[in-house]
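Hey, I'm writing a tutorial for new members on how sequence and structure tokens pair up, and I'd like a real worked example in the thread rather than a made-up one. If someone can provide the structure for the chain below, I'll link this post from the tutorial.
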Amino acid sequence: MARLKNIGLITSGGDCGGLNAVVRGAARIAISKGIGAYIIPNGYAGLYNLIDFEKLVLMDEERTDHVNSSIAGSEAGHSRVKISKIEDPLKYQRISEGLKKFNIGGLVISGGDDTGSVVVDLTENGIPCVHAPKTMDLDLQTYSVGGDSTINKIANIVDDIKTTGKTHNRVMILEVFGRYAGHTAFRGGVASDADCILIPEINVDFNVVYKDIKRHYIRRIINSDVHAGTYVIVVAEGVRDDSGELFSDGGGKDSFGHVKLAGAAKFIRSKLSSMMKEDPEIEQFMKKTGMYVKGAFEIPEVREVVPGHIVRSGNSTAYDVNFGKEAGGAAVYLLDEGITGVTVVDVRDGIIRYTPTKEAIKQRYVNLEQVKFYEQMGICFGRNATPSSDFKPAFDLAVAPIRRFY
């Protein structure tokens, strides 16, 4: 097998924590092996236009020093471009010619399911690639760079928003990214002691949510010596109502054909406010706690907060930096061994584990058995929880007790 002389580094899809660690890890391993590592900027758009570039940035020791692994986002830049949809019958030939121009023998590509689908496509068209899994949605079969950073950011935002909620006695709804899987809302909500977590895997029963709000929100305010309290809901953007319909404002579709989700928190806020207006017990509660003002303050305020891209920006957690460096570095070793069309799973005990990218990008949802466990702690998931008398977890002696949390 001919030894690799140069590789290209690509990051694609959405930005998130840990990506710069992938870039740095891949570059450092390439340097140690005497392989040139070049940034191909702007994701797959840059790959398609590579033939037109005059030069690329070489990630030598000096340049790699300037890549800060703890900063979110990517030094390489991104774009949302699906190669197979480019209206150019010679697109794969064009890409191959661009790689030959810079003597690049393989690509380390970091991204999520959409990015991974292009890795499969490129591999099938003779372009050697290894996939470093990245998505804050955590919906790949492997752990993905960015998940831990996003979950920590969501948890911090929820903690912060509680101060506003308690000051104004509001019900607060935080809508977060995650598309059709609820991992980030689930884990971020659990980590921040959210009262209610609504995820796409469970259709929302608003009667259950409303009952839970009345139980905890009213109790907190009545029992407070200054009549102060809040109730926090974390909702995934892809959540559905009890008929299975998405709460979407209809923002069109992206280049990969996904509906641009928006409006879940707004819809839920409107629904809960309407239920409060129709509930005579709410007026009694407002009067009992001295909050009621006819025509001005007749029901508790329900407010939605949509942090949007803030949850994927800023800084990376140490967990994502560690995994990012492992994923990027392992991808270089795999390429150099001629192992392509695969996704890095992890590096454990000096062993690089990988899986076919076709398998890695199959969507993974929140395990509802895990949800049942947290329902026993009193967290509302928008459905009737399994009674504690009926919840019987299985038991197993762990042979290998150390595992990745996600």
